[in-house]
Design a protein that fits this description.
The complex is a heterodimer. Chain A is 50% helix and 17% strand. Chain A is of the alpha/beta class. A 5-stranded mixed sheet of chain A has the order 1-2-3-4-5, with helices on both faces. Chain A is globular, with a radius of gyration of 16 Å. Chain B contains 11 helices and 5 strands, in the order H-H-H-H-H-H-H-E-E-H-E-H-E-H-E-H. Chain B has a 5-stranded mixed sheet with strand order 1-2-3-4-5, with helices on both faces. In chain B, strand 3, helix 9 and strand 4 form a beta-alpha-beta unit. In chain B, helix 2 packs antiparallel against helix 4, helix 5 crosses helix 7 and helix 8 runs parallel beside helix 9. At the A-B interface, helix 3 and helix 4 of A face helix 8, helix 9 and helix 11 of B.
């Protein structure tokens, strides 16, 4: 089951539509990381709204994607974790530490917009604050 | 083909009752007797109920109406040997009478009274033929006892169901998730937190975060008297789960005693944002919300200035 990776401006959106096998997940990870560099994107959104189960491998893969994408210059945000899934995850101790998570795709886009704008702003010489 | 079929049916029919043919016949006779004397026995039963001061919460007309229904169901259960209809009826009856304060002993009492009334009428009918009376009672008593059992169990089950329902309702009432303003929720916790309540609390909060698209949640534990490591860990889990849904949690109102115990038993709450009181928590939350909303607008405001 191939996960479609869509490009939206500076961001890549991977929308998982059904339960994935471990091999599918690894494939998704490789495809995403490769695409991040190829398209010079600034952010990655992984939408897991359709998943009602998440095992340790899936969580680890999501975490790996986030860390790997960061090394390649893109922020990652996981969107759409269901309440029941979130509860099950914390009970199993799978908490996605260090990975940004938000409610849904809309929030995810807003989050990445904010992040990338912050970064471009930071990268510029801090004239306004230097004057004040 | 047809004859074969009918033959097999007839053999099956004659096979089964071979052992209990006489008792089935007796039961039929018994049922016919109860049907014949329906009016009289029913009245007698209702009289006995009133005399024994059972079902005082109900009027005499009501007692008589219910008595009629119970009587018919009773006879039917005797006749068919199936208890589903009676079970369903006793559940409905319990639903009607429990809210009016009818007690378990009253329900058991009236069913036993009916058994006695019917047994007495059987005595009267067969008193000349003791041997037949014995056989009639042999087939009547087990069925009657089972009926009494069914009704009593149905009543008790219904009561337990109501109690469970009420417990659930109380629990849900005890954890209100309130929206203070757009994207900000408050969850005041009052009283004791046991694992079950903690679980329910978390589930409710997560659902509310999703429904209200909350960004910040303030959990106020001013009303929690004591906290052990189990409860503290539940709290940490709640915070983590909320983060997975994209909401930040601020915990407020940790009392001096709780702060001391938590540090003493070594629960690590460093990951958790804590603020002294609810007011401070809401202020902090509003700051967070402003921060989150601001950057895009701020940057746009400042950016042209810097190019100027």
């Amino acid at each position: 089951m191939e996960v479609p990776i869509l490009r939206q401006g500076q961001f890549l959106i991977a929308s998982i539509q059904s339960a994935l096998t471990d091999a599918d997940l690894s494939h998704l990870r490789e495809a995403l990381i490769a695409q991040v560099g190829r398209s010079r994107c600034r952010g990655v959104i992984v939408d897991v709204t359709a998943l009602d189960v998440m095992d340790s491998f899936a969580v680890r893969t999501l975490r790996d994607i986030a860390h790997m994408a960061r090394l390649r210059g893109a922020e990652t945000v996981i969107v759409g974790i269901q309440p029941d899934v979130a509860f099950a995850m914390v009970q199993l101790g799978l908490t996605l530490k260090g990975v940004a998570t938000v409610l849904d795709l809309e929030e995810g886009l807003a989050f990445l917009n904010r992040r990338t704008e912050e970064r471009t702003f930071e990268a510029k010489p801090k004239k306004p604050s230097g004057r004040g | 083909m047809d004859t074969k079929k009918s033959m097999s049916v007839s053999t099956r029919a004659s096979e089964a009752p071979a052992l209990s043919e006489s008792s089935a016949g007796l039961l039929r006779e018994l049922v016919a007797h109860l049907r014949q004397n329906r009016t009289q026995l029913r009245e007698e039963w209702a009289r006995r109920i009133t005399r024994a001061e059972l079902l005082t919460a109900m009027t005499e007309e009501e007692i008589f109406a219910e008595a009629t229904a119970v009587y018919d169901n009773y006879v039917e259960a005797l006749e068919t040997g199936t208890f589903e209809a009676l079970q369903a009826y006793s559940r409905r009856l319990s639903e009607r009478i429990i809210p009016r304060g009818v007690e378990t002993d009253e329900v058991v009492g009236i069913v036993l009274l009916l058994r006695d009334v019917l047994a007495r009428s059987l005595f009267n009918k067969y008193q000349d033929n003791v041997e037949k009376l014995n056989r009639i009672l042999d087939s009547y008593e087990p069925a009657a006892n089972r009926i009494a059992n069914t009704v009593a169990v149905g009543f008790v089950e219904e009561r337990e169901r109501i109690i469970r329902q009420q417990q659930e309702a109380i629990r849900e009432l005890s954890t209100p998730v309130l929206q203070v303003r757009e994207r900000l929720l408050i969850l005041p916790i009052i009283g004791v937190i046991d694992p079950q309540r903690a679980r329910q609390l978390t589930e409710q909060l997560l659902r509310a975060i999703r429904a209200n698209r909350a960004k910040v949640v303030v959990i106020d534990v001013t009303g929690v008297a004591a906290m052990d490591s189990g409860v503290a860990n539940h709290l940490v889990q709640t915070v983590e789960a909320s983060r997975l849904l994209g909401a930040t949690v601020i915990v407020t109102g940790l009392s001096p005693e709780i702060a001391q115990t938590l540090v003493t038993i070594g629960v690590d709450l460093s990951e958790m944002a804590t603020v002294g009181d609810l007011q401070g928590g809401i202020e902090e939350a509003e700051r967070l919300l402003a921060d989150r909303a601001a950057p895009t607008t701020q940057v746009r405001e400042i950016a042209p200035e810097s190019t100027r």
